[in-house]
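May I ask you to comment on the folded chain given beneath this request?
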Amino acid sequence: MTTPSTTPPPERAAEAWPFWTLLVVDDEQGMRNFLVKALGPRCHAVLEAASAEAGEQQLRAHHVDLIILDISLPGKNGVAWLKELREQGWSGDVILITAFADLDTAIEALRAGASDFILKPFRMPQILNAVQHCWVRSRLARENYILRRASAVEGQARGGLVGSSPAMAQLWESVRRAAGVHSTVLLQGESGTGKELVARALHAQSARAQGPFVPVNCAAVSPELIESELFGHAKGAFTGATRARNGLFHYAQGGTLFLDEVAELPLPLQSTLLRVLEDLKIRPVGSEQLVPVNVRIIAATNRHLASEVAAGRFRKDLYYRLQVVELTLAPLREHKEDIPELAAHFMAQLAPALGAEPLALSDTEMAFLQRYDWPGNVRELRNLIERSLILGALNVSALYAQPAAARLTTAGQPTDLHALEKQHILSVLESVQGDKTRAAQLLGISRRTLERRVAEWALP
């Protein structure tokens, strides 16, 4: 066949697929050369093969997002190979091309799982539009997945960070500086201080703002599944893996992956994550393929990572790789001047959602709030406002009836971080009469994490 002579149109932003790898499978060298030359500048890479068997070798060696596949091939034809790929769980897009087709062939191709069907000879805009449609469909699928997964959290975070104290002003300046670079960021601070809000602010002000923000709570996923959750898995990688599945790195492509409670990652996975950060490639569980990724990592923890490193619970090299930019969030007791602004913000945010009238807080009630030490930080203040809106009055007794109001750092008390953490957790546990589920919610950690801490201290 004669290679089409249509001159490629000028490059347009809408026709760029920077994170995609394409595979062209056609037995005609001229057609492969044409497609490689036309599509190469618009995507990450374009591979080629002259048969389905050679295409299979390329898939084993490389991650491929889209295949442009000729139906008439020596050996196994394109439709038969496409059916095999779908049965094996391969979920990428496939555009079938052929010079000989009728309606029955087109129907068979679409039933086999083709994303599009193009007749030869075709013009350049046809193939560009077909690839563009696949790109848009893939991007929308990622966005829909992210929205379904994080809609509840995003609804709470939409208001952003609130406060005008010196501590908040310094934090905002740090966020502004860190947002302008692509380096990894480590957020440290007590539970409930708003680490995810800061991560979202970093993403929103960065060059990746148009890309996805994908949060994952590392403590909420079992150690056996966290690797698959992050990197995806191949079909048959483990019991129950009946089909291939993409991980969160895939859905964060071009954007930000937020690893909350990163200190909870198992040590073997810490080693894997370090390799990903250095090579910018992931390997799905059970797969031999290395998949390139373009993702910024923001990690957060309520534990002091330097102490975790010293205790052998966290890899030193990963710690240094994550803390390229390190931000520490102050607990609410250190910027109590923000409490009136925060209370007003939560009142305005929650009252419409609850269908309740906003409460007018008196000076006396505000003074009560500002005398309290807030072991659960901003999250505890938000919970108090929500509970008060439901009850119709500020629930001050919920604070001062409990010993959790005692200041954590009074004279004569321990000042090392582990002792303070223990005292803080025990104080919250006592305030809820030992209810570990409720205490974990106030502390912003999983019940599993809380139980592990209690077990370390040999408590009932």
